[in-house]
Amino acid sequence: MHPLDLADPAVVADPYPAFARARAVAPVQWHAGLGMWVAFTRAECDAVLRDRRLGRIWRDREPADRFAAFNLVHRNALLEMEPPDHTRLRRLVSAAFARGHVERLRPWVQALAAGLVDGLVERSGGSRSVDVVGGLAEQLPVAVIAELLGVPAADRPLLRPWSHAIVRMYEYDRTAAVEDAAERAAEEFVTYLRGLAAERRRAPREDLLSHLVAVRDSDGGRLTEDELVTTCVLLLNAGHEATVDVVGNGLLALLEHPGQLARLRTHPGLLPTAVEELLRFDSPLQLFERTATADVELGGVTVREGQKVAALLGAANRDPAAFADPDTLDVGRGENPHVSFGAGVHFCLGAPLARVELQAAFGALLGRTSRLELAGPARRRPEFVLRGLAELPVVLGPAT
Fold first, then answer.
1. Could you write out the DSSP letters of every residue in 266-291?
2. How confident is the model at residue 219 (pLDDT cuts 50, 70, 90)?
C-alpha cells in the first residue's frame, strides 16, 4: 500500500505525518490509487507547477450530456488553459483587475471583517460558544468577491452553495449524488451569470463584471460570452473557497499554539508575515494536477507523455529542505517560499485580494477581542483536496 492513503480518516484529519513518511521514500512516486505520479518535495512541486511540458489539460467529464454545464465552466476557464489561450485570457482578466479594484475594497473589507467579529463577540459574550467558520470565514470572502464583481446583495446567499457543490467534484471519493449536485449548481450558476452580464452590458457600473464585459486587449479582442461566465465562476469559486479554509485552518492553528497567538497580539505588525505562515502551515489546497505533454524527468522518475502528475502543496510547504523546522508554527517566519498560491503561469490571480481578506479577518479577530479560546473540538470536512473546517467553536470576549 502507498504510504499516502487518501481513504484513511487519519490522513484526511492530519496528512502531514503521512507526507513526511512518503517524502523519506522518494521525492516523486507513483500512486496507484490516484493513477498518477505525486510529488512530495518543495523542489519537485515547484517543477511540476513551472515546467511548461506539464500542462493543465482539461478533458470533459463523461458522459458529456450529464456534465454539460460543469464541462462548460471548466473548458473555458483560465485555470484549465495553457498558452497561448491562457496568455490571451489572463491578459484580459488582469487588465480588468488592474483598475484598482482590490485596493479600492481594502477599507470596505476591513470594516466588514470588524463588523462580523463584533457580531461574534456580541453573541459569545465572553462565555458562549460561537462558530467562526459560519460567522466569519464563510461570510467575509463571499461578500468581498460578490462586491468586487457587483453581485446584488439579495443574490449573494446563492453563491456559497453553488460554489461548494461545484468544488466537491475535485475530490477523488465523490458519489453520484455529489456529481449530480455539482452539475445542477454549475447550470444554475451559468444561467444566473449570463443574466447578470447582460444587465451590465445594458447598464455598466464601477464593478469588475462591468469591466470584464468591456475590456479589450491591444488587438481588439475581448472575452467571449462563455469565457466571461467561466471567469466569473472561477473568481467566485477560487476567490473565496481558499480564503474560507485559511481563516478556519489558520485560526485553529493559532488557538492550538497559544504562544504564537500571544506573540501576534503583542506584535500586530507581524500580521502580514503571520498570514503567509498560516497559508504555509496548513494549506487550503493540498493537490494540484498537471498532465505531461512530453516525457519529463522529475525527481528521479520519468513522467511519460499523457500521464498525470500532482503537486502535493501541503507536502511541499512542510519540506525540511525548504523550511527550517517545517512542523513548527512561526508567525515571524521570514524566509517563507510557500506554494499555497501555486507558481508559474497559473500563480493565483487573486492572491493580492486573498491577502487583503486574510489580514482583515485575523486583524479583526486579534484587535477586537481580549479573549479568543477554543470552546470544543473543531469539526473538519471529510475531504482531502480542499482542506478546511466545517465548524470551529470558540469563545470571544470584547477588546478592553
1. H-GGGHHHHHHHHHHHT-SB-EEEEE
2. low
Query: Tens of pLDDT along 301-310?
Result: 999 999 999 9
Number of domains in the chain: 1
pLDDT in tens, 173-195: 889 999 999 999 999 999 999 99
Per-residue pLDDT, averaged over 211-235, amounts to: 82
355 residue type, one letter: R
CATH number at residue 93: 1.10.630.10
Helix (H) or strand (E) holding 384: none
**Does 4 map to a domain?**
no
CA–CA separation, 343 vs 201, rounded Å? 34
Domain membership of residue 196 as a residue range: 9-398
Q: Mean of the per-residue pLDDT values for the chain?
A: 92
- Tell me which residue of 137, 135, 106, 105 sits closest to 118, measured CA to CA: 135
d(CA 265, CA 253): 15
Tell me, yes or no, whether 1 lies in a domain: no
**Would 43 be classed as within a structural domain?**
yes
d(CA 169, CA 27): 27
Which contiguous run of DSSP H or E holds residue 214? helix 208-214
**pLDDT single digits (tens) 344-354:** 988 988 888 89
Determine, yes or no, domain membership for 2: no
Helix (H, G, I), strand (E, B), or coil: what is residue 125?
Answer: coil
d(CA 271, CA 218): 39
Asked if residues 46 and 339 have their Cβ atoms less than 8 Å apart, the reply is: yes
Confidence of residue 1 (pLDDT cuts 50, 70, 90): very low
Give the 3-state secondary structure of residue 88: helix
| Cell output for 126 | 465572553
